[in-house]
Amino acid sequence: MVTRRGFLKTSAAVAALSVMPKGFAAVFPSKEKAIGVQLYSVRDDLQKDFDGTMKAVVDMGYKRLESFGYRDGKFFGKTPVEMKKYLDDLGAKMTGSHTGSRLLEANDTEGWDFWKKNAADTAELGCKWMIQAGYPVRDIQSILDVKRLADQFNRCGEIARANGLKFAFHNHVEEFHELEGQIPYDVMIENTEKDLVTFQIDTAQLVYGGFKCDDYVRRYPGRFANWHLKDANPDGEGSTEFGKGLVDFEALFAVAELAGLEDYYVEQERYNMAPLDALKYYYDFLMNAPYVKW
Question: Are 81 and 126 in contact (CB under 8 A)?
């Protein structure tokens, strides 16, 4: 399984845009803001008090949840049926699941069986998204390896689609480090099929990679249907609270239609306050942000 990694030290400033594009309401017809959360944000609290933490998150307003740590056919120790019932009772839904594997050979039966079982379980849970949670850095030695990974993502996308799911890749910062004169992230986008693979922008990690989120959307329109919202600490030492860092969320939401945005999730990995307090801060921030239209 791919584990989550910390941030590396880089910084970049982003430019502001303030006008929502025409047609935005057609992409997001609901007037209610559908703010999601990656449950990794409260990982320690979940270990201490799973039920209490889940209830607190949902009561806060987060009804669209993203899982992590799928293993042995279970999500947080529950079968897909058990977890779906558990969330139904809370009034929430698991809309995505973070998972992942190493770089696989085409004939790796065990590796591909994992993806097939994973997709079936994720679909049974009622999710929309199955997401590779990180870049298998140790397996990538060349641009040829990056292209092999892109081929793997296309195949994962086919498996996801066969189960009624969508497949996405979640970036960290390593994918933006130049390799053989190329940016691996660009190589992955350019060698994956648009209808099979989307790229879940981790906003802070992309900015730490030295780029602007909205610039990437303009460069590759329609490839970013899913976002992880996280602010980048100006000192490069991990994430910070929304509005206090380097990510210009207004500029990013201004190109939401161009991105093909369908879902977005709050995520925090490091805190200056208690995790649940931070999630409340983020929820209120997005609810009060005039440029977030749904």
Answer: no
Which uninterrupted H or E stretch holds 260? none
pLDDT score of 290: 96
Angle in degrees, 0-180, between the axes of helices 109-125 and 143-162, rounded to the nearest 10: 40
What token pair was written down for 120?
């079936």
Helix, strand, coil content of the chain in percent (nearest 5): 40, 15, 45
Six-digit token pair at 229? 């919202």
User: pLDDT for 8-47, tens place per residue?
Assistant: 333 332 233 233 333 333 344 444 799 999 999 999 999 9
**Bridge pairing between strands 263-266 and 231-232:** unpaired
Give me the phi and psi of 215, to 5 degrees please.
-65, -40
- Reply yes or no on whether the pLDDT at 195 is more than 80: yes
Q: Which of 28, 14, 30 lies closest to 257, judged by CA?
A: 28
Question: Which residues on neighbouring strands pair with residue 232, listed in sequence order?
Answer: 239
